[in-house]
Amino acid sequence: MKSGFIALVGRPNVGKSTLLNTLVNAKIAIVSDKAGTTRNTIRGIYNRQDVQLVFIDTPGIHKPSHELNTRMNKLAYSELMGCDVVYYLVDATQAFGKGDQLIVERLSKIEQPIFLLLNKTDALSKEAIGELLMQWSQRLHFAEIFPISALTGYNTSDLVETTLNYLSDGVAYYDTDAKTDASTSFQIKELIREKILYYTQQEIPHSVAIVLDEYKKSGNTINVSATIVVERSSQKGILIGAGGKMIKRIGTAARKDIETLLGDHLFLQLYVRVEKNWRDNPNKLYQLGYLDIDDE
User: Fold this and answer.
1) β-sheet with 85-91: strand ranges across
2) Is residue 175 part of a domain?
3) Which residues, listed in sequence order, are joined to residue 282 by a DSSP beta bridge?
4) pTM, entire model
5) How many domains are contained in the chain?
6) DSSP β-ladder status, 85-91 and 2-10
7) Residues 139 and 230 occupy one common structural domain
8) Burial class, 111, CB count within 10 angstroms (exposed 0-12 / middle 13-18 / buried 19+)
9) 261 and 188 in contact (C-beta within 8 Å)?
10) How far apart are CA 14 and CA 104, in angstroms?
11) Is residue 14 within 8 Å of 89, Cβ to Cβ?
């Protein structure tokens, strides 16, 4: 059978998580319009007869402003070493910048075939796409270049078929009915964080982490309690909201998605705790599950 690992890399907010979900036809990675949504590597598993592809969503590569950001970059770079093919996603509607140059320089040092995926090309004219293809082909030797739309799925079927040409015969690394190797607890925490990203403003999202305090089934109900960790008291106030309205809104939205994930009725309790500067504290990062590559 054909099998292999494909790493999805790029700057923040270029559509890596959306593409992962489209490729495996399931919501594996949370999605938002906030940069830095993906903090961990997330594996989505594509299965069909005699084919298993493991797509690895990685944190967006960017200039780090905290220790957490540094660890996210390390995670993204580490996946380049063990994969069989690299998908380098760029937002075709955005100009080439320093962040792109940084990634191109890093990719120039690896031996794996690199596919350039020009995402969001559905928003561009054929002339604009042609110009981009010419410009990008001069920046690095790409094995393939694909204009795609991660949101609509445009050209993604051809992308998969072409990828198979670059893979050797192998084995199935996961069960053939699996969609991801992510734990249930991880998925629950991510769905809670996704709702925070959706409902709150720029001050909050980057400062939030989730701790799962309880996961217990009782009869026909699953009881889940989780703590939302923030860095400042003012952020705690925003998350709770006047009369607790914001935390109730987040909880209601998260509960619906978690019930879909688990297939059971859910009782969800959310709490908020302040941990000052946790994003720069190695011990706190470790406790919250954001390991350094050197810690693993």
Assistant:
1) 42-48, 51-57, 2-10, 85-91, 114-119, 144-147
2) no
3) none
4) 0.93
5) 2
6) parallel
7) no
8) exposed
9) yes
10) 15
11) yes
